[in-house]
Amino acid sequence: MLTVAGMSKAYGGRTLFADASLRIERGERLGLVGPNGAGKSTLFSLILGAEEADAGTVELERGGRVGHLPQENVPVGDETVMELATAITPEVAALRERLRAAEKGAMLGDDFHELQHRFEALGGYTLEARAAPILAGLGFRQGDFQRPARTLSGGWVMRAHLARLLVHEPDLLLLDEPTNHLDLESLLWFQDYLRNYPGAVLAISHDREFLNTLMGAIVEIRQARLWHYRGNYDAFLEQREANETQQLAAWKNQQREINRLQTWVDRFRAKNTKATQAQSKLKQIERMDKIDAPVEAGPGIDFRFPQPERSGQRAIELKHVAHAYGDLPVYDDLNFEAERGQRIVLVGPNGAGKSTLLKLLAGVLPVQHGERLPGHKVKWGYYSQYRIEMLRPDSTVLEEALDTPQAVTEQFVRTVLGSFLFRGDDVFKPVRVLSGGEKSRLALVKLLLDPPNLLLMDEPTTHLDLSSVDALIAALDQFEGTLIFISHDVHFIRHLGNHVVEVRDGRLRHFPGGYDYYVEKTRAEKAAAAPRQPAANRPAGIPPLTGKAATREERRRRAEEIRERNRHKRQLEEKVQTAESRIHTLETRQGEITQLLEDPATYEDSARAMALSDELKAVLAELEALHEAWEEAATKLSELELATLDSA
């Protein structure tokens, strides 16, 4: 399928690859791992031909197609979500419009059939049918399909691009952190889909469970080479440890032999009678096939974070809480309680209200009705990517991390920063030049260095690599307070969650056990419920009428239901359109402010810089609320449209 042979690549004197080789067979599933900056994304660029290797070859099987999902956002134009997912060509789009016009004009004859034949040959009739279930699996509602892609957040745009790859089924998928933008439900669907994907997959991922579930081999970038291991990620760790033990023993034996020969040479080189023998032993050393010294793994995560003050038994409680975004209710009569020491993970479909619940608990969203009751001596902290603006732009990474009331040494802080990818001179970077992911990691370090006793975290692993996720797990495993979090990283959930709360349709359901208990319980319930489902498996909607059974009263009732349904549909469409328009305006302003804040000249006027930072916080907060409101309205609209289609 793909062969990389003798490849070398260097940047500014730093060698990323030296005589690296790799072979990918059809249908293989490979995970690509290595430390940050090892060259994982560069390898993708070399395979795609976006960059040229200094030496060696990259050969793709003749006729083979490669699909690439980058880690960062990609630009979109005026296409809809469905058009982005199907990636229709201009020719297909033009043919579709001509066919629609022809159908309205009742065009018949050879010209019409020729249009149909060409449209079918280009896949026009099948692409949307293939795209619809894939979009649904990735979390899109039917009402989203015709929404302009430019009105979506970056994460949803990436989901649409992922759908495009799955629809077109390239022979080789190159996926760069594909799980970053997925929630737990869409991630599980994606994993199931890839199990039966007909092509080969090479994926960069920090999600250990994803690598363990799907990958039949792991490719590690180490010492500028590509090392191939059979099995999943856990098997790779075992094999690498065994290989390193063997390599260390062989290297030590060779070093002892070299030292013995060199000692003899140094001792007798000056003697005329031994000079020939000394020269022979030097040549013997030169002819040796030198074994590379094993690269030592980084130090284990053995530090302990400061522990918070002990709270009362009840950490926090919500009583009879109601919350809505405008006219869109999210919760009504919500009750929730967390006790000291619990580690609660919130799960549920996208748009169910998990983030809203977390913000209500954190006090980020004010309680509209009901009560929010923190427990005795409770100090809470909320971690979200939208809190990074609290960092001081002119401080360095190290200065910002040291700015904590806890008594910590610089060496300890630098060790913690290193665990979260701030290594070497990175700690002296000004905060203003950091990427969004780097700022999120720094905010996470600050939170851990002075932890509250109630910690509320929304997707904390998103910008972390595998070793940093392990560092975070180790830190939170020591944490003695109460933890409530949202995550799509199953490995992270399994290690930390001891209580699962499912959020669905504005209701909470508690599972007093870990993630595996939750999966087992819900799977058993679905299996038990399956035989009782109607054979047609119809969504809830207005039942169709048969001619003889349709009495006058039934017809009157049906007409009334249709009028009410149409009225409700118009209201939802208006809410969706209003939210989309406002989101577009705010996202445009967000980009303008971000560009200004990235300009060092802005900070010459500290008052203006502070005003822009405050405005950005307000814009981000309103965007969060609007996205929640839009998702709620779009979900209801999609369900209504499905019910309408089903009852037609």
Note the beta-strand portion: 15-25%
What is the structural class? alpha/beta
Integer average pLDDT: 82
- Order the strands across the largest sheet as they lie in space: 5-6-7-3-8-9
Radius of gyration: 30 Å
Largest sheet: 6 strands, mixed
* Overall helicity: 40-55%
Please work out how many helical segments DSSP would assign: 19
Distance between the termini: 47 Å
**Strand elements, count:** 18
Given the C-alpha coordinates, what overall shape results? globular
Task: Tell me what you see in this structure.
With 648 residues, the chain is of the alpha/beta class. Helix 18 runs antiparallel to helix 19. It is 46% helix and 18% strand. Strand 6 (172-176), helix 7 and strand 7 form a beta-alpha-beta unit. The chain is built from 19 helices and 18 strands. Mean pLDDT is 82; it is low at 532-550.
How is this fold's topology laid out?
Elements: E1 2-11, E2 14-24, E3 29-33, H1 40-48, E4 55-60, E5 66-69, H2 81-86, H3 90-104, H4 110-121, H5 127-137, H6 154-168, E6 172-176, H7 184-195, E7 200-204, H8 208-214, E8 217-222, E9 225-230, H9 233-268, H10 275-287, E10 314-325, E11 328-339, E12 343-347, H11 354-362, E13 369-374, E14 380-383, H12 397-402, H13 410-419, H14 436-449, E15 454-458, H15 466-478, E16 482-486, H16 490-496, E17 499-504, E18 507-511, H17 515-529, H18 552-597, H19 606-647
Parallel strand pairs: 3-7, 3-8, 5-6, 6-7, 12-16, 12-17, 14-15, 15-16
Antiparallel strand pairs: 1-2, 1-4, 8-9, 10-11, 10-13, 17-18
Helix pairs in contact: 3-4, 5-6, 9-10, 18-19
